Amino acid sequence: MASSPELSSSSNGGRTQTTQTTTTSSQRNNPHYPTRTELVALALYPTLLLFGTLFSLLNPSARSSPYDFVSQSHVQSGDAIPSYFARKDNLFNVFFVKRAWFWITVSFFGFLFSHPGYNSNYTGTRGDNGSGYGRKVKAVVRWGLVTLWWVFVTQWFFGPAIVDRGFRVTGGKCQEAQGRVNAQVKADAMPGPVGSNVEVAGLKEFVTAAACKAAGGKWQGGHDISGHVFLLVLGSAFLVQEVGWVVARHYWRRSVRDERTVVMGDGAVKSAGTDLAADKRWDDYSPEMDEAREVRDVVTGGGLWDALGHGGKVVFVVVGLSAWMLLMTAIYFHTWFEKLTGLLVALMGLYFTYIVPRFVPALRGIVGLPGV
């Protein structure tokens, strides 16, 4: 589609200036959707899940290994287990995936407080004296939103977590523990000491997978959203968003353009860079001046590895391990539908944190955008 000129007027000291700008509607991204670059990055996740699922069906050792649909894993005893990564007690699962949010948080804050993109005098929201303090606060708010979504889905949601609630709604329950508790309740109804706490404890056993397993029961019968897929997708995509846009804006500004668009307070759709300019402390802003005021206190030479900085390199390792363990989860754990729902639930949290603020100015004023 050909570009079309647009006329805009501005008033400066009583004088009206008319300027002509050229926009290409076919190149402007809809603020309600991820950009093309983001879609390419996000496509990695369903690709890994699809490849892992196909591999588990075609690989002879994985296909022939006994599978336990209650634990959603291959049988953990004997020599039939198809791979070291099919074991739930493998070191990567125990020390990385089980503590994944710790590693995600540490790497994020390491990048936030060490990378020049957050410490330069290039940009700054009003009131932060150009130190990047305001941008750091908004980055922490975004981390808080993503962390809250992780807590709601896997840990607690005004009671049982969303994963446990979903399992119960779809017909799941604590099978073996239920029989034992019912028997105990009947025994307590007989003459003798009253064990009133047994029924309360039994009810608790039924509402979460952790309590059920701790009581010796089996959590089965419902749809079990893959917590591993959810966690690894949410955490790694969060890090990619936070690091990717900062590195792109500050190191390859002249060759990599910000594809993101935002809805302004008056309803106009403009580039994310325009929203940045609106927060500057000068009135004669122009894109040319913006490029002229590039970050001067960072080394723009070198490749991606140098551009990441020390904090970004740690993030790179965490994202790489997340991708690898996501592939192992796709091969050896959960059904394809449970992995799919884990992916979709993770994308819901990412959409609210990184896409919704682009078309809701009030929310954007609180959480900001990475690299802006």
TrEMBL record:
Pfam families: FIT. Keywords: Endoplasmic reticulum, Hydrolase, Lipid biosynthesis, Lipid metabolism, Membrane, Phospholipid biosynthesis, Phospholipid metabolism, Transmembrane, Transmembrane helix. It catalyses: (5Z,8Z,11Z,14Z)-eicosatetraenoyl-CoA + H2O = S-(5Z,8Z,11Z,14Z-eicosatetraenoyl)-4'-phosphopantetheine + adenosine 3',5'-bisphosphate + 2 H(+); an acyl-CoA + H2O = an acyl-4'-phosphopantetheine + adenosine 3',5'-bisphosphate + 2 H(+); hexadecanoyl-CoA + H2O = S-hexadecanoyl-4'-phosphopantetheine + adenosine 3',5'-bisphosphate + 2 H(+); (9Z)-octadecenoyl-CoA + H2O = S-(9Z-octadecenoyl)-4'-phosphopantetheine + adenosine 3',5'-bisphosphate + 2 H(+). The keyword Hydrolase applies. The chain crosses the membrane at residues 39-58, 100-118, 139-158, 229-248, 314-334, 340-360. It is found in: Endoplasmic reticulum membrane. It is a multi-pass membrane protein. The keyword Transmembrane helix applies. Residues 1-32 are annotated as: Disordered. Its EC number is 3.6.1.-. It is an enzyme of class 3 (hydrolase). InterPro entries: FIT, SCS3. Residues 1-30 have a biased composition (Low complexity). Fatty acyl-coenzyme A (CoA) diphosphatase that hydrolyzes fatty acyl-CoA to yield acyl-4'-phosphopantetheine and adenosine 3',5'-bisphosphate. Preferentially hydrolyzes unsaturated long-chain acyl-CoA substrates in the endoplasmic reticulum (ER) lumen. This catalytic activity is required for maintaining ER structure and for lipid droplets (LDs) biogenesis, which are lipid storage organelles involved in maintaining lipid and energy homeostasis. May directly bind to diacylglycerol (DAGs) and triacylglycerol, which is also important for LD biogenesis. HAMAP family: SCS3. Belongs to the FIT family. Fungal FIT2B/SCS3 subfamily. This is Acyl-coenzyme A diphosphatase SCS3.
